[in-house]
Amino acid sequence: QVQLVESGGGLVQAGDSLRLSCAASGRTFSSYAMGWFRQAPGKEREFVAAISWSGGSTYYSDSVKGRFTISRDSAKNTLYLQMNSLKPEDTAVYYCATDSKPWRTRVETPREYAYWGQGTQVTVSL
What we know:
It is built from no helices and eleven strands. The protein is mostly beta strands and 126 residues long.
């Protein structure tokens, strides 16, 4: 059974940093691209960042580029999202996900992801 469990969310002030983690189990995740998405109240789920199966390529939405960093530790089956210079508009539930097909590099749309975590809340106050 595939399982993704996010952690690291919380309430912070604008300008602060947080690091989200996503612990994966039940699959050889080193063969699959992974990504982070977020969903704010009343809005659709949006792409935040993705990392290729090898970890050699990363992709970001324009809204987080330069502030967020996605990384993975395949030995630990863990995905990370380092979030710096947080803004109130970053407030959302953050989800990690794993690709539906192996060996892919760039995967940015939710429908391409097969498994999702339960989400972790990030709230950024002024």
